[in-house]
Amino acid sequence: MLARLFCRMIAMIGIVAMPPAMAEDGYDLWLRYAPAQPTAAQQISAHARTITAPGNSATIQIATAELQRGIGGMTGTTPALSDMIQQDALWLATPAASPALPVKLEGLGREGYAIRTLMLDGKAVTLIAGNSDTGVLHGVFHWLRLAQSGAALDRLDIRSTPRIGLRLLNHWDNLDGMVERGYAGQSIWDWWRLPDYKGSRYADYARANASIGINGTVLNNVNAKATSLTAPYIVKAAALADIFRPYGIKVYLSVKWTAPMELDGLKSADPLDPAVAAWWKAKADEIYRAIPDFGGFLVKANSEGQPGPQDYKRTHADGANMLAAALKPHGGIVMWRAFVYAHDNPDDRAKQAYTDFKPLDGQFADNVIVQVKNGAIDFQPREPFHPLFGAMPKTPLMMEFQITKEYLGQSTHLTYLGPLFEETLQSDTFAHGKGSTVARVIDGSLDGHRLTGIAGVANIGADRDWSGSIFNQADWYAFGRMAWNPDLTADAVAREWAALTFSPDKAVVDPVVTMMMGSREAAVDYMTPLGLAHVMGTGHHYGPAPWVSELGRPEWNPVYYHKADASGIGFDRTKSGSNAIAQYAPPIAKRLAKPGTTPERDLLWFHHIGWDDRLASGETVWDGLVHRYDRGVATVGTMRATWDSLRPLIDPERFAQTQTFLTIQQREAVWWRDASIAYFQSITKRPLPAGAAAPAHPLDWYKAQSFPYAPGNP
Ligand code: GCW
Fold first, then answer.
1. Domain ranges of the chain
2. Which of 399, 524, 605, 638 could disulfide-pair with 531, CB 3.0 to 4.6 Å?
């Protein structure tokens, strides 16, 4: 307490010490607050000579400390805190502290904010106001973002409120520190030393998330261990919740369906068994005693070997509603995943979630939200949007994106995910006619839902740069920003991120954004062009293995997904095939019924096409495939050259990491191209189109590669 007072006094007189200059190792993410150019620095100082804040809550202390750190870093002068609003002040305010605010905060909710330049008793001030301290904190981060990116600060009039209620990270972190599909080192949760030892990284994590509006985190893997629900682990989770709370971030847990049996010897986990329901109720009560604002449960049930209500001949709704009843008195929610496919179901894997869930529409309790992956298979470089979006109007659906790049080059490929997020969010479901975008399904506006959400599988680990590479940080950033506003463009977000992460200098931002914006399409080209999917190596999903055909279940094998044979390539999902297209609204299904009206980027997802059939360009499918592999490799070459040209403008450490990773990416893009061509050519038996290089090695060489210790593989 005394220490806090002392800090506050020091802050008041404006002599907070600057941290020593550190190497740019990526730890500071997009919150670097590097010294601004002189005119920009002057501008910032001119609008932030002092700071007046509403009270001294933990959240407000975080907000003012962030401003002092940011402004101090950018300008060299740390503004003092002042109880009086002075000329050129930053005035942080809530209606609770200042009842007669000169801006209206209606419609901004608990988390939104207004930023306005105004005259107050003859003094020019910048007001940052929110209905809660959390809203103010979000506004502070917005103002700092403007300041860092060199935007004009003299006539601000901004109102912003999140379109989606739950904006969560999902950590697939195991209790032993391994992160499933994690490529940034071990888990940042040090479960062993919690709750006693709380390193500073937890607060830094919360700060980074708050800066982009993320308001919740699921701490443990959806492939959950019951241990997370034992008393010692609840205390550990509570310690994290205490750290995250002032940042406006709630804690959630993934639960294992059979926890009542494993932990307390119950005879069954049947959701309709009163003893089971009572166990969960008692467990929820216990959690809320330790974490009063606990968010709720995330559940992976009856999927990939996980137990679930179907083991007792009950539905997903039976299961979700039983848990929901346990959480309801405390205001908690259940996020029930729709990522289900059964090893004993012979139907097209892409159809199974819809088949299971669509009939349950309207049967879920009002504190249940169904969490649906962006596509119907599994986080591929490209997938058409999941047909459940728009198909369950009576049920709130939340989006699940994967920020960690299981299938997109893991930590070393630069494949910015903004365009993937945008493509999915802007897809039109036609659920209520034109304009029924996925964004409007998940923000609740399409069907009038108030419970709304979006989750991103985190790419965060104990690596110094958090995400396994500097450019992977952009995916975390983009997820948060697009969760706040799902209509933001990937391009606009990339611009922000590049300016904050490297420099607002156009000579940096423009080329960096160009690299980023083309990068995902490049990965699609060199990995899975024309709508191909799931041709990655078994288990680790690193690198190409389209030849794999001998695994136990059909849908574990890449050959199941591409179906290449002497006649052609692609998965027939039309009437003559699995008829998955019938799961989409009629205008879409109609378009997808014929190759000629199917978007070419999804062609082989929906159709089995003859090798010699023609693409829009006039070339054959085989030639077009080869050209796309080549185009992907070429784009990576261009990205490398662009990056090399930026050497004088980027700090050495981050420059070198990216340069090395791009070298790896180029080598692997060639590997992807060559291995894929070698394999598909062995099937089509056609010659390569004129000018295309033969693969560097025979097919058997590619088949012989193995990666026993590839990271992230459970
Ligand atoms: O993407 C796949 C992954 C699994 C993961 C599963 C899921 C957590 O390969 O590692 O398990 O999806 O989303 O449940």
1. 32-160, 166-501, 525-571+608-703
2. 605
